[in-house]
Amino acid sequence: MNKLKFTYTFLALTLMLGFSSCGYNQLVEFDERADKYWYQIEDAYNRQNDLVPLLIKQYPNANTSYVKSIENARKEIADLSIEKDEIAIGKIKKYVKLQQQLTKPVDRLLNDIYNDIKNLPKGNQERESLKTLASQIMGSHNRIGLACDRYNDVVDEYNEYQSGFMQRFTSSSAGFHHKEKLDIDLFERNFPDFEALDRSNNN
Fold it and tell me: The whole model's pTM is what?
């Protein structure tokens, strides 16, 4: 009797471990994909933030209040570190909101630059330098938006898969957490059309 009970227990544990193993591997895959897209967002933000001081240096007419807001926001962002195990538990929302505190004065600065250089002739050194930096900042933003879309898609898949019965057991025992999607509206920005400068100069 004891031998039979041991056999049933062994089989039950084997099946449970088998199911858990399959669920675990899939959760790891979703988790790694989400991390990959989050790091792409973070890298693009870092690239954008590195360009902003160069933009200010190239633009001596920068509004001092914008510059002060930018400096304060960059300091707060630098002081906030996000470890891998914190990506899943909402700390990224604070990071994105801090980035918004930076992008708002940057966007105002870009609009001021656009208005100042739009009448300068094509080929003017100041015009071309500022236009190039502005284009690079906008390119970084486009990469942020693309990575955000991909991140949210993976998070949807991850959370749906994690809600399954066996996956809930695996998640609980292996330390996987529910992931929060990023609010795509936070990534909307009102950029001036710097490419239109060349079109207007050609007319």
Answer: 0.77
In a domain, 194, yes or no: yes
Question: By three-state DSSP, how is residue 54 classified?
Answer: helix
The secondary structure of 162-173 as a DSSP string is: HTSHHHHHHHHH
Q: Which amino acid is at 37?
A: Y
A 10 A CB-CB count for 38 gives 24
What's the number of CA atoms in the CB half-sphere (13 Å) around residue 55?
A: 31
Residue type, 184: I
Maximal CA-CA distance, the chain: 94
Q: What is the tens place of the pLDDT at every residue in 74-126?
A: 999 888 777 655 565 567 778 888 888 888 899 999 999 999 998 888 889 99
Structural domain for 92, as ranges: 40-148+184-202
Q: Are 131 and 197 in contact (CB under 8 A)?
A: yes
